[in-house]
Structure formats: C-alpha cells, structure tokens
User: Which sequence fits this backbone?
C-alpha cells in the first residue's frame, strides 16, 4: 500500500458560534494522519470558502470535501441558494426543473470549495410510518424516483461535483431511524432488488460517482442480520450485478446503526472488508485509522484495502483538484434564487379545500412539531417577515383578533423517531384549527389527514425559508 488507510476516513467539521476555530486541533491532527477529506456542517459562504481553501493548502494535496446538500447549497452554507425538497420536485415531475437544481447545487458548492454532495436520496417513500425518509424522497414510484435522481446526478456531476446516491439498497421501508437504532426491513429479496433497488440502478447508469450504504439490516438478503454497510452480499450485488465502479461509502458513523454490533473502530474494519471505500463522520478518526491499518492482512485482506485506496485515489483525482483549477467565477445568486422561487411557487398547492379569501388583519399561529432533539430548527419567522414587508400586519393567532392562519412545521429529522404529528401538536391543532382561514403544512402531504376539520390546507413540503416565502406569496394573492 502506498498510503495509510486514513485516506478512507472523513471527519466532520461543524460551524459553531460563528466560527470553525474550535475545530483547529482536529483539522491539524486529521491532516497529519492523512485523512481523505472532511464533511462540512454549517457556516457562511465566506467562512466556508476560506476553510476549504485553507484545508487544501495545509494538506498540500487534493481532498474530497463533502456536505449534505439534498435541498441545495444553503442547506449547509448560509448565503447560498435553497432548493425545494426532493418530494416537491417529484410531485412537480419536471425533469428540467430537477436538472436545474442539480446545476445550481454544483455551481454554488464548487464556488465555496465543496466537491462532494451527499445527495440525492434514492429511497422510495413507501412506508407512512417511516420517521426519516418522507419528504427527502422523490416519491414512491421506482421509475419516477430513478429518473429524477438520474437527471439530478448528471447535472451535478457535469458541473464538477461528485454525487452520492443514498441509502443503498433502500431506507424507504423502515419503521425506525438508523440514527437511533438498527432498523430491519423484512421485504423479500426480489422486492428489495427489483423495487427498492431500482432507483440505484438508474443512478449507476447515470454515472453516479459514489453510493452511500444504509445502516439497515435486510434479513431476507443477508440472514446474518448485518447492516448493508457490513454485508459483502449486499455490497457485492452493487458491484457485480449493478456494475458500480465508484466509491461505496458508509452513512455517518455517529449513528446508532453503525455501532449496533460492535464499537465503531472495529465496525469500520468490517465495513471496508465488506466493500466500503469511505468512512464518513467517525467521532474518533485516529482510532478508526489505526484499527484499519492494524487489520490489513488479517480481518481486512490486503487486496481489499488496496482496492479501497485505489477507488479513493481515482475519485480524488477526478473531483478533488481545486489547488490548480482555474477561477470558476462567482455564481449568479440572484438568478438562482429566482429559479428556486419559481419552483417553490409551483410546488405549493392546496391539498384540501377551495381557494380561500384571507381576511385581514391576519392572525398567525405556529404548531412546531420539530422542537427538541440534538439540532436546532431553522428560522420560523420568514413567513411573517415576508408578509410584513408587503405591508400586512400579523397578530398572534392564539389570542389575536381575526381569523387565524395556522402554520404547521413537521420535517423528517434525525433522532425524531416518528413520522406522525406528536400528541402535543395534535392537541394544539384541535384548539387552533376551528375558525381558522387556512392551514399551511410545511411537511409531508400525508400529515394533512391528521389536521382536523375542513379548513383549506396549503401544502408547502418543508419549513425551509424558501417555502415559507412561497407560502407568504400565496397568502398575499388570496387576501381580500
């Protein structure tokens, strides 16, 4: 081997309290150890661009720097463009719009030094009680999901960013969140390969450069009960039958599904032995790298270690060289924002009732089903701000005069653990919806059935700022 297996390891760097500075010791140690790159969570446009440039300069070699960009670059980087969720794009079924989202994601990600997008989600929206997929999926139809994913991947990669189809062979049937436990899917082998796996076939045929394996067990495929990331049977099918030649990666190793059978350092050895080439977000990257190097020639065959390193080197040579690239120019953020707003306006639609006439002064109440958990929610005041900027006064819907507009926020969130609205949210809706003029649902359309009464429901898919603005524009058009 020409390098330590640390090249297969990708620690995470998080923006906190307006800085990455608290990550400096980790960065120094990780680069000294020889990691293959990093995963970025949060930050401003300027700070992220500075960080990624300094990482590459300090490393003195190309790196893969990835981020979760399912809903566009602004999902992680403040000041870039938000794009609608996959479910909204799937509902529109406009492949040109989906391709445009892939282009914007790539152009803006590259502008701040990110060259690996952990997207698109290729899971099918098959299970109503699934707590983690929901609006992250393009839909339930394997062909439609595959076509959407393929268009997004081609657009992304043609503009210089490595894509990642996830979560192979499909997270759509789970009843549990792999962040919190190891889910088990008992579908038949034929269903898993022909239905759940179909979008991944589309992704592979589109040339996707990486595939993220799921921390989910499929006993009808691998009776050992191992998660897909540790299953040579499941990963072997991806290689041998689907003819995938790129990077096979794990999901985040901080997830409970990763350590369900053994501690993470030992688990990563099993993952590489089974066919994984990249290990994402280990908390203790140095122990992981040491465990990998110790295992070579034993639990980890030398040929498999060499193969994983070769696949990493191939990927980083294709996608990673920012040190010598020509200036790509600044992205046209105004044009990108207008494009995103246009899609958001088309995706927002009534799922119950007739077009309302909204009386003013309007009173707005919020039912937030996403409070709690390890990560803070995004801003919830953008709907209000957009209306106020248009000269519309808003009161509080719990006590204010006039008929209410009720905003319901319910997103698929790590460690949330459920797909339905919680008991507290349902109780609040029973109190607030009677007499309301409109409910705006920032969530999956299935949740409309949990909203009482016959009040019109405007579906806006996700509570991101983009969709709050779209909801406000629609309400402005309905004012009496």
Assistant:
């Amino acid at each position: 081997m020409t390098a330590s297996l640390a090249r297969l390891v990708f620690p995470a760097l998080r923006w906190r309290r307006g800085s990455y500075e608290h990550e400096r010791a980790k960065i120094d140690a990780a680069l000294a150890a020889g990691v293959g790159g990093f995963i970025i969570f949060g930050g401003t446009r300027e700070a992220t661009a500075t960080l990624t440039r300094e990482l590459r300069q300090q490393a003195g070699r190309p790196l893969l720097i990835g981020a979760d960009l399912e809903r566009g670059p602004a999902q992680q980087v403040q000041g870039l463009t938000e794009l609608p969720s996959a479910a909204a794009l799937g509902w529109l079924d406009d492949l040109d719009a989906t391709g445009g989202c892939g282009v914007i994601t790539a152009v803006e990600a590259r502008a701040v030094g990110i060259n690996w997008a952990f997207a698109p989600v290729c899971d099918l929206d098959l299970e109503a009680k699934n707590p983690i997929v929901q609006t992250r999926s393009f839909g339930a139809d394997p062909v439609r999901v595959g076509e959407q994913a393929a268009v997004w991947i081609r657009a992304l990669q043609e503009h210089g960013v490595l894509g990642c189809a996830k979560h192979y062979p499909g997270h759509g049937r789970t009843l549990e969140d792999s962040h919190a436990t190891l889910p088990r899917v008992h579908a038949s082998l034929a269903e898993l390969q022909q239905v759940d796996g179909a979008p991944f076939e589309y992704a592979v045929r589109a040339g996707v450069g990486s595939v993220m394996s799921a921390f989910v067990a499929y006993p009808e495929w691998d009776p050992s009960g191992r998660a897909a990331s540790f299953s040579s049977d499941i990963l072997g099918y991806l290689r041998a039958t689907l003819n995938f030649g790129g990077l096979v990666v794990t999901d985040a190793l901080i997830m409970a599904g990763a350590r369900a059978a053994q501690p993470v350092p030992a688990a990563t050895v099993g993952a590489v032995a089974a066919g994984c080439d990249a290990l994402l977000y280990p908390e203790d990257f140095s122990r992981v790298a040491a465990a990998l190097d110790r295992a070579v020639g034993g639990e980890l065959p030398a040929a498999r270690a060499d193969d994983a390193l070769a696949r990493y080197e191939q990927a980083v040579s294709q996608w990673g060289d920012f040190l010598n690239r020509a200036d790509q120019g600044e992205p046209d953020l105004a044009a990108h924002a207008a494009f995103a707003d246009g899609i958001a306006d088309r995706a927002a639609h009534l799922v119950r009732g007739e077009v309302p006439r909204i009386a003013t002064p309007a009173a707005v109440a919020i039912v937030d089903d996403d409070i709690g958990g390890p990560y803070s929610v995004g801003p919830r005041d953008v709907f209000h701000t957009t209306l106020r900027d248009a000269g519309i006064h808003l009161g509080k819907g719990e006590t204010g005069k006039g008929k209410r507009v009720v905003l319901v926020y319910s997103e698929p969130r790590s460690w949330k653990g459920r797909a339905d609205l919680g008991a507290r949210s349902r109780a609040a809706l029973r109190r607030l919806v009677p007499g309301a003029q409109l409910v705006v649902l920032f969530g999956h359309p299935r949740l409309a059935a949990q909203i009482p009464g016959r009040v019109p429901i405007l579906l806006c898919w996700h509570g991101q700022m983009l969709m709050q603005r779209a909801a406000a524009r629609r309400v402005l058009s309905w004012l009496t």
Observations:
- The chain has a mean pLDDT of 94.
